[in-house]
DNA sequence: ATCCTCCCCTAC
DNA sequence: TAAGGTAGGGGAGGAT
């Protein structure tokens, strides 16, 4: 089984698909009016992946989205069955694998042939067809020529995935073999890729290696032996290599000719029919190895075309660097965040630490975790385990100078600068240079002074990437338990082999690495990870070393403790102060003493390591725990706006990385480097110098990867540091408490269909005592009105539940939902979706038994409906949008939602027929039923007139409209009759003074009766309640009103409560006279605030309630109000997000 | 005890 | 000029 198919397996039971033409018009909002519901769905779906428009990313959190999730999830098994049977039957190509095995296409926009046809081809020949783009599932994006306006969108979400023309599929079918897709790439995008550096260049999945490489590599057969000089190797270079290794350092050649030249020179294939590149390619693309790479020709004219991925890194760099000097000059801060609008991109592009720091994520994608399915790490501890540690020698230098044999014996270092007075850092030094004391991390000026003849060579990140790939290709070939440490270093568990055999393996591997890459590696062999690593140190350079168990003690006796992994300069210094320099001396200290001095774990580690004991198993690939991005170089701000702009860029970067990892997180941490008072200009150019490191974290109730949420939170966090932006020398943003995005982002909606279809067992997760640090006041930096909130609901069934909180149950399946009718009657959120809301394409493609099940739920109306609409697909798009407008119009104008009797009827039918309802989740109070019944779901289902509603809009209430991209909103509203437009635009587009979207508060229709003040206590500026509180007789209310102004009149309740913190202790006495009316008043504003914010700013509510909870311990007044309103919040949360909210 | 945040330390 | 990132482990100290 190829890597690719393993990867497919990873995505488990949630492969997305459905049946037909719904893949039109990705993200093309302008087409909304003409598009059918599925098209709209695509627009929304793709919005979430688009990084180009910040305003367009809310919209995927709707009923519609969850509907799609369910749709896909439920259909997945059926698709598998269908695809398997038909592909087995029809696959006639020679191999045993179906033609499109491992290929998973996503069709974007209009294509010839239609996406429907493409789908059937894929299905027929063993491929997959994804209706919704997912980076983890889609291998190829199919797309015809696009208008320029769309190219940008495509690029932003394809991010390195091949974007190819539909003819690739056709031709492959015609040829009865999977053709190389490269010649079918979309030209617009290929060119575009090189013009537009990517922010996350390092994260781009490396789905494409230059085919040219593979091809020419195969032609360039050389045999390099360890003694054979590189010069010889070069001289043997096959003429068929268009560009040789020697061009590597010639900038004018390197730029446009062949940046992969070096890879070919060292390719040794011997009798191996497949080169490393080919293997890699196959692993990535599931190209049959028999495929003849007929795309090679396409490259000759345009060698750089293939680099639609990690290759961009260098491609961009080589193109950009010549032009960089012109930018410089004027200010001495021209290289800071002040001088360059694209600072972040450019910085990361050139940062070695960014490269090695992000390498792991790229590796994960290229070598999906196939091994270590068996994680028996215990063998490593007890009986004769064998561990190999292998590490490339002076990696960065080695890769560069392999093509420059004249430098082999000279001292060489990799560095951005050759300036003998410069503060650029040495990245890697070769062994001759190390003899002079040159080390990684020292300034180039120091290196030069240590070694005046030091040769400085530049980075070639792309080459590092390729060599690392070759390196790991070889490792995986020899061992299935490979633990990647870094791009040049790994552990192999060969415990089944014995140490001597391990030595042999190590030497074979090293030889192969040298032959394949022209770079040497060293290896250590021992009984555990620790000793193997230490052995490598001894082995270097270009050697290997065995430490058998009986030699461990002797080896460690004199070993400086600094050598032990985990002991850096700080621990080393501390131990030195205890007169401990060697492992032998360390062994004299008792474990208890070490633990007392250094902590329990660290002490234990020291004690064990000094004895050569290490029980860590090899090859455990643990899930990502955090994702972040930071910049601590060139960070200089003059104004608050400078800093906020930069923060926004970081948020984008982090959001992209989260998406790249397929995760979302709940804890957002902002880190700042603040220049110390007494610190002068840093020694290092544009460095941070002597800084205080500060951080603030906030945990939100719902995991997110949404850039707008990140922005809002990070801006809040930013305000917690009360500092002058001029003092900032570094910023970092990190997201932790990660959850799998497949669950969180897709199970976010409160779709009735979702909860109805799935067993709703998922979202019962306990959210354990989230907390946040509240220091200072919430600043009013946050002037934006982003409605962004990643909603959260039931984790839908998904093969990978590894991130599921323990308390949530497994995936649900059809026929296993259970809910009592009583529960169901409480919940409008569990209503059956109306027939018009269903995607008929999907319904039609359902397996018969499932179809009939649904049909039963609808009392047989589904089949009737299908009959009626048979062959009317063409008309759908127009009617859909108009009816959706009508519906929106209705909701907006009426502002209330009388429950259509038909819907109730359906619900009753449902209960009777099947007893199958969504599980009603955690409604905890009587108010729930009122809240629950407020789901604005109006369209009457009158007689046989089934309107074809766009799924996304029919179930949408007004807040969803708010979440639409503004263009879309305008689009919809414009299409309304003029008089209505003005009416509803009031509640949807107009902003209130606080720059928050004003929400029409429909719920008050039912809640208002108990309100003293009536509705919209929060309307106006100041909000109405402020005045009322001010003139009230109650001290507490007056105080709160006062806090409104003290907090800056921002209108954020959290700000008000924060201000209240500082004075509350003083007011405790005043709150002794607990007046029920007073509490009611507070409850009113709280409830209305919940209504106002629940959809747009759950975090804000969450923060407020955290604060309120604090007050409850100090004030009966707040305790009472909190207890009264909390159930309301929980019900409201439940309704909106389908889960529990624990404060 | 166990969790949290806010650090620091380490490795590449 | 120069590109001091990234992620995990862990400890101190506080809240529950
Ligand atoms: N402070 C550092 C450490 C490492 N690296 C980069 C350059 C190295 O080449 C690569 C691999 O790190 P190693 O620790 O393996 O160092 P080398 O491979 O350069 O040398 P060695 O032969 O000791 O492994 O990571 C870097 O840029 N800066
Ligand atoms: Mg190395
Ligand atoms: Mg290394």
UniProtKB/TrEMBL annotation:
InterPro entries: BRCT_dom, BRCT_dom_sf, DNA/RNA_pol_sf, DNA_pol_Y-fam_lit_finger_sf, DNA_pol_Y-fam_little_finger, DNApol_IV, IMS_HHH_1, REV1. GO terms for molecular function: damaged DNA binding; deoxycytidyl transferase activity; DNA-directed DNA polymerase activity; metal ion binding. Residues 1-36, 311-335, 742-828 are annotated as: Disordered. Residues 387-568 form the UmuC domain. Residues 20-29 have a biased composition (Low complexity). Its EC number is 2.7.7.-. Residues 1-13, 320-335, 793-828 have a biased composition (Polar residues). Belongs to the DNA polymerase type-Y family. HAMAP family: DNApol_IV. This is DNA repair protein REV1.
